[in-house]
Fold this protein.
Amino acid sequence: MNIDTNSLLDCAVSAVKEAGSHALRNHSRRKDILKVFEHDVKLKLDVECQAIAKHIIQSTFPEHAILGEEDTHELTKIPEERDNYQWIIDPIDGTVNFSNGLTNWCCSIGVRFNNKVVAGAVYIPVSDELFTATNDLPAMRNGSEIHVSNIRNLSESIVLTGLDKNNGTDAPPFEIFRKISLNTRKTRIMGSAAADLCQVACGRAEGYYESGIYIWDVAAAGLIVEKAGGKSEFITREADNRLSFLATNGEIHDSLRRLVPLVMQ
Ligand code: IPD
Ligand code: CA
């Protein structure tokens, strides 16, 4: 059964707002860490915020599958064909920023129908900015339509990125970072892929690229960039939902794409 995308978006909006507001209200607990990794942490609030989002989604759409960053082990058990609809949650994108008291973090939820994202919502609690889009509605920021910038030259562009440090500092992402930096006005690492993509969607930056990112980081915001007039592209895609991903204002897409490798690093 096809569901009206507005109902999907309404539910995604409630879920990102409730989950994001929970994290903001509980900011004093941002150091409650469940697990420490070499370059990352998992917080109690990551898990709590995902549970809040899941509860809202399951109360409205109990039959739909959910793929959340915090419990991917459960989700791999769901056969692809069981559900046409799949909700993709990143409860706190920018967990390290949040945990350290930096302000750039968000909650992101995308809805896929037959493997295509049809609705997405990203909520940035600190600035109270809600970014949304559906496949048949324009991209919006707090209810007003947004557009990507019209900058055409890479040399005048700001490109946002992240660095996958897992293979050491000689790894190709560092070389790609160097190339992008030398060819753009500014390159920034701001620490929250979904929030970064929303900056591209509303024209505050021209592009975003990252290798070694995951589907929950980009599902909602990739659609938001496209519906704001930009372009997004999975450059490579692996079975465990890992991707290398490029999104731009459209104008600089080909120039930026020429700087990034076509294989997963
Ligand atoms: C991370 C952020 C970061 C990006 C990493 C992601 P998380 O997500 O989006 O900007 O560089 O690749 O894993 O772990 O904070 O949800
Ligand atoms: Ca994330």
Observations:
- The chain has eight helices and 14 strands.
